[in-house]
Amino acid sequence: MTSALGKLTRQQQTLLARWLPGASVEADHSWGLVATTVLEVTCAGARFIVKASAEDDHGIRRELDAHANWLRPWTDRNRAPTLLHGDADAKLLVTRHLPGRLVLGSEHAGDPRLYRQAGELLALLHAQLAVTDDDHERREKERSLAWLGRPHRIAPHTVRRLRAEIASWPTPSASLVPTHGDWQPRNWLVHDGVLGVIDFGRAALRPAYTDLGRLAAREFRGDPTLEAAFLDGYGPDPREPHAWHRNQIREAIGTAAWAYRVGDEAFEAQGHRMIAEALGDARG
Q1: Percentage of residues in the chain with pLDDT exceeding 90?
Q2: Are the folds of 2-97 and 102-278 the same?
Q3: By the 8 A CB rule, do 12 and 91 touch?
Q4: What contacts 107, CB < 8 A, 6 or more positions away?
Q5: Phi, psi torsion values for 176, nearest 5 degrees
Q6: Domain map of the chain by residue range?
């Protein structure tokens, strides 16, 4: 597995040798669809996670910002990895290894007790800060229209409907809180029945309801008891209907277009299904 270090740039390798001299790669957890390398390494008998990204990727900087500003409610409870080293310019960070198995695809994937914990943890993150942003909705409209202007396989008549709907949206001020940005079982670990959280490459200030978008598209859709358990842990549902509908449209467009760009056909199909449901076209 030492060859996995070859995925890092020379600058990244130099920094890692300084931070963890003699580190040995035990596993490569890189996803493959994005330009981020995730390595599980050992050094002096301890275990760490090394994350590195390409020059044009902004995930490491977001992760470092999240560690600096928002993750303490989780790290203090040992529910998220603790940052040890980071360099935003080199696009490299090292955290302590957080034990556990991915919830996604495991026998725990449908356990309501974990969803209640997920709600509790997310509430801790969201409660730290709230700022009013008068320009958020306008920026999100422009982002959705930009996705529609890039290569994708959304049908032309659907694109016209989406553009017309987006053009009709109001742009009220929004309350933004610290969000994970990819809150779903793919980024949850379970260890002895306790839920932990990983991957903060999409962390940013957003409306609280946005962190429910990916769960609503899959897990909540398939099992309403998971949604009930999540909200039991989280508290009052943050999804105001009109803002939530706009978010569903945005999530659907972004999913279909991004998945097409990276070649993930299953995820792309989910995006097209999300578009149909958001527009009220789903059948059965």
Answers
A1: 90
A2: no
A3: yes
A4: none
A5: -110, 140
A6: 2-97, 102-278
Count of alpha carbons within 13 angstroms of residue 89, beta-carbon side: 2
What is the C-alpha R_g of the chain? 20
CA nearest 35: which of 16, 17, 9, 69?
A: 9
Whether pTM > 0.70 for this model: the answer is yes
Instruction: Give dist(CA 46, CA 16) in Å, integer.
Output: 15
Superfamily of domain 102-278: Aminoglycoside phosphotransferase (APH), C-terminal lobe (3.90.1200.10)
Q: What single-letter amino acid sits at 252?
A: A
Q: How far apart are CA 199 and CA 63, in angstroms?
A: 8
Q: Tell me: pLDDT of 79 over 60.
A: yes
Confidence of residue 209 (pLDDT cuts 50, 70, 90): very high
Q: Are 177 and 128 in contact (CB under 8 A)?
A: yes
Does domain 2-97 fall under CATH 3.30.200.20? My reply is yes
Say whether 223 sits in a helix, a strand or coil: coil
- Detail the DSSP E strand segments found in 106-149: 131-133
> What's the token pair of residue 28?
């490569």
CA distances from 158 to 152, 213, 216, 232, 253 (A): 12, 21, 22, 37, 11
Question: 108: closest CA among 121, 118, 98, 97?
Answer: 118
| Per-position DSSP letters for 65-99, written without gaps between them | HHHHHT-HHHHTTTSSPPEEEEETTTTEEEEEPPP
